[in-house]
inorganic diphosphatase (Deinococcus arcticus), 628 residues
Amino acid sequence: MLAVFGHQNPDTDAITAALVYARLLGRQGIDAQAYRLGEPNFETAFVLREAGVDAPPLLETLPAGAQVVLVDHNESAQSLPNLHELTVTRVVDHHKLGDLTTTQPAYLRFEPVGSTGTLLLKLFREAGLSVEPLDARLLLSAILSDTLHFRSPTTTAEDRDAVAFLAPVAGITDVEAYALAMFAAKSDLGDTPAETLLRMDYKVFPFGEPTAPHQWGLGVIETTNPGYVFGRQSELLAAMDNLKAEDGLSGVLLSVVDILNETNRTLVLSATEEKVLREAFGVETQGHVADLGARISRKKQVVPVLETYFTPQG
Amino acid sequence: MLAVFGHQNPDTDAITAALVYARLLGRQGIDAQAYRLGEPNFETAFVLREAGVDAPPLLETLPAGAQVVLVDHNESAQSLPNLHELTVTRVVDHHKLGDLTTTQPAYLRFEPVGSTGTLLLKLFREAGLSVEPLDARLLLSAILSDTLHFRSPTTTAEDRDAVAFLAPVAGITDVEAYALAMFAAKSDLGDTPAETLLRMDYKVFPFGEPTAPHQWGLGVIETTNPGYVFGRQSELLAAMDNLKAEDGLSGVLLSVVDILNETNRTLVLSATEEKVLREAFGVETQGHVADLGARISRKKQVVPVLETYFTPQG
Ligand SMILES: [Mn+2]
Ligand SMILES: [Mn+2]
């Protein structure tokens, strides 16, 4: 039995990719079970509710040597804590390749597309398998979520083609309305504790020297209602401060992405982060907020800049 | 312009994969040039001569930031010396994933098949492109070479299916006769210097702790005429001794694989290697030769055993 799971602090792509890939493997005669490494966010909960499926069960640990399939991530810092003891047999991902290694030849499929969902659709086609309406709905939701309905610079022609193909199969006639409903669900943050907001779409990246990296925690809140988030600025800064101390991080940032206006205003904890933002991005911070303009993709517009900044030129 | 190349000490798979993948990328509108990182062996020279194509040009260095495509390998120890400064945009490979990382999302395609040639045939099919006779001949040769015409335990059903498909396209009616001619060419070692024989299919593997690995050099001579190789045993042991000292290795082994009888008798340099072979494989060494029985695949039957031996159990 293969355990299939996406990254910690799962987003819609991580959860749906695990569900759909486990189903695809099952149709190919490979026994696989989908899991999640954390709670679904409000957008994902909406997607699953609309699709009429339960979230996959929570996975907290696996015994050494267990066979696993990673989707939508590959770095150990974003995976099960004891990933290095597990046997990775398959990976389907659209992120840069980090510290993953395998002990045996494995199936690895990485492409620079906007969503793991887009890549999974290719796997259905290559296997000569039809896409069932439920799978189509989950894959479509993943693509809309990761690309912010094509607003993100990570969007590719393949993502657009995939959505055009999937929408009629899923029975979704108004894709824009469905995407807006997803984003509204994501933005309905209500009385969510500040720490939960911070960790909702949060990843730790090791920058610079692999043996002695600068560990930076980068959170993102994608919302149609940024005013709500900035109304809770002092709580969020306190949560960032706690997280930095607890996890021994070099820096913490929380980017508040306005989905509809395609802008990124980022919460900046201290003078340390302020200096890095000034030197790496050339932006100034005022009252703990830095205007990162149209840099709405952490993966494509924030992480590579910090990676370059911290990497000594050889 | 993408530079496409296989591993150092190239074998037939490494050379032909670079040639064929560069041609495939070209047909997809991507500007790519095949290279080799070393001299073709006698088998590869035979394959290229029969196909009527030149070996790709030798590549010794590339400027930092150059875009490269790796085929048939992924570990930096087997690649261009400054791989960590280059931008890897694509990898097609059938080995375990080593220390490769990418700075951006890339195209990575790994499958546990017997040869990169098998995987490249899949890429033609997925792209909806016909396979031209030259490409078919090169891919077929790679599969026969890497699988020792299906004798190696790395052979999969996909390798057999690929050869069955490719042979008529390549115009090769007697596959067994062609394979034997390839292996005879490989075995015609003549007055090749001992150091060249040792390095012909030679790879360095870092075993154990990534930060302080045991570096082992593992050479293989696949031949239909093992008697010739053992006739030069003392020269080969001297070459192994030199290599160990020059490269600061922890161990050196040279496996002499009898292709037709499917056996592996391995030259063992010193008491250090002898101890490891005893403890890891349970075999004794006599007169610098250890009988590794039917373990004819370095990748599948030798490297994993040493990897396990040197990895502290967690
Ligand atoms: Mn994703
Ligand atoms: Mn190969």
User: Anything to note?
Assistant: The first helix of chain B runs from residue 12 to 27. The mean pLDDT of chain B is 95. The interface with chain A takes residues 64, 84-85, 94-112, 126, 211, 299, 304, 307, 314 of chain B (CB under 8 Å). The first strand of chain B starts at residue 2 and ends at 5.
